[in-house]
Specification:
Two copies of one chain form a homodimer.
Chain A lengths: L3 E11 L8 E17 L4 E8 L12 H13 L4 E8 L9 H14 L12 H8 L9 H8 L2 E6 L4 E5 L5 E8 L5 H6 L4 E3 H20 L2 H7 L6 H4 L6 H10 L4 E4 L6 E6 L3 H14 L4 E7 L6 E3 L7
Parallel strand pairs in A: 3-4
Antiparallel strand pairs in A: 1-2, 1-12, 2-4, 2-5, 5-6, 7-10, 7-11, 9-10
Helix pairs in contact in A: 1-2, 1-3, 2-3, 2-4, 6-7, 9-10
Chain lengths: 315, 315
């Protein structure tokens, strides 16, 4: 019987520009790692916190990893409890899916302690229960991407149907995390409750073209589709230089550029051969705007959650 | 130099349920045929009208075939004119794309008289100019489907980008044309100018799932996606038995069921093996509603516009 298990999950690009609340993309430029230690006492507790943060909330209802672990233990009806060590490498409140990655990694680590572990895809509801901490109801995009890897669609919510979207080969995602923070809940709060029918149609046109382009590898369709006409116009004010960064990326050859999730991070898709110049152009636009920003890159085929070698049971 | 040329174009299913103003599907259960006779006198005139109608408008601005021919002749700058014989086999005001088929067939027939004919796909703007007669601005769905055949997406309007969506093999489209008429312009007039953001998201989710399902042949994704949450709820009142017909189709195994275009025709997608029972179930639902309705069937791979053997030049 394992005394400890460890799992890591990648950052992710929520919405993928054109797919608000529908598409998500794993972005393996950084991973959160959670180590679950089996405890005799029931319940979920926070253990060591390492990485880019000094501390994390220890309240189960305020920590996506703890909440996911709690939901899983309750569903499995275990008698044991867990302490979770969290190594955080994904920037917080960056729009890089860090909260989802921690929730997914926690669910997978705790799952590995069960006598009869769930199949990985079946961890979705537990990871979503964790993500509820950051937004209620929880958006699926980051969670499913961190779980499955690659590009993923939430094809149906009830009953749940998530599916991989074939990722075109030869493409790279470039992402900039600027020195600015947005909260998912706040970024959702600015959205209008109604949109013009014409906007809904143009949004549907783009996501359909984009999905078809990904499935068939057709770059012209991806370019036609990789644009957010639904929510980006309502959120652009959150990052005043977004327009300039986007224009620079497109001019440098990017297939599309938009907020990652609800921002403030900005991502672009580029041909592998164009990725350097796209990154350079975006970096210069941030500099011109006087905004510090850190660049990340990952292929579209980024791996989802995975078990890592478990630590020695020394606790 | 040809004195006459003839082309036929298929009926079509506008919107394909989930793809309002974005998707169209050729439906080769009936075709309109247009014969263009070269005339010394410039301009476009209506010749013989045959088929299921006794007459058609002879005014260029009131007849989609004449309007398409007129737009093409003007663009080509020809010195000759044409007389168009129209054999109409697609029911009028049925939501079966009859006006688009006539426009497409006319454009293709006249095109064949040009010294340097346009590639078929480049006939889109002329056929759209014809379709403007039935709705302004003209929806693209029927026109592009009648032109290219199969399932087609309008991926971008400006500049125009239309593309085939791979049609899954083994599926049949079943369509019922009930004894009721709707006018495209009127059916568009009932639509609300704004929709809830949540509806726009659910609509995008479905068209993305549907497109992916078609491209990959995944029936579960097609089922998840082939549902119109955007406009069908607003138009359902136009055909009170729609709900019953749809329920019957789905219960009989259909992958989805909705209005064809703006109705009143209703179509369903079914596995080839289920098509008989789906058709039977829909027929019974129409009977139960006391509505006469005629059934049509065609594969998803329906052929688009094609040239037909030209008649002898006897005029």
């Amino acid at each position: 019987m394992n005394q400890a298990a460890r799992a890591s999950a990648p950052a992710s690009i929520g919405n993928v520009g054109v797919g608000f609340d529908v598409l998500g993309q794993a972005f393996d430029a950084a991973r959160d790692t959670v180590t679950a230690h089996r405890e005799t006492e029931p319940g979920v507790r926070l253990g060591a916190v390492t990485g880019i943060v000094d501390s994390l909330p220890s309240d189960v209802n305020a920590n996506t990893a703890l909440a996911a672990a709690d939901a899983l233990l309750k569903a499995a009806g275990t008698e044991f409890g867990v302490t979770l060590d969290i190594d955080k490498q994904i920037p917080v409140s960056a729009g890089m899916g860090g909260s989802a990655a921690s929730a997914v990694a926690a669910a997978a680590a705790v799952n590995a302690l069960l006598e009869s572990p769930y199949p990985i895809a079946d961890l979705l509801p537990f990871a979503l229960a964790g993500e509820t901490v950051s937004a209620d109801p929880p958006p699926w995009d980051n969670v499913m991407a961190a779980l499955l890897g690659g590009l993923v669609i939430a094809a149906r919510l009830e009953p749940a149907l998530i599916a991989p979207v074939p990722a075109p080969s030869g493409l790279t995602a470039v992402l900039f995390h600027p020195d600015a923070k947005t909260e998912t809940a706040a970024a959702r709060g600015v959205l209008s409750e109604h949109v013009p029918l014409q906007t809904a149609v143009e949004h549907a046109r783009r996501i359909s073209a984009f999905t078809l382009g990904c499935a068939t590898g057709d770059r012209a369709l991806i370019r036609a589709g990789l644009e957010d006409v639904l929510v980006e116009p309502q959120r652009a004010f959150l990052l005043p230089e977004l327009g300039a960064v986007k224009a620079a990326a497109l001019k440098a050859g990017a297939l599309g550029c938009s907020f990652s999730g609800s921002g403030p991070s900005v991502f672009a898709w580029a041909e592998d051969a164009d990725a350097d110049q796209v990154q350079q152009a975006m970096a210069e636009a941030f500099v011109a705007a006087g905004r510090g920003a850190r660049a990340y890159r990952a292929p579209l085929t980024s791996e989802g959650v995975r078990l890592e070698p478990a630590p020695e049971a020394v606790r």
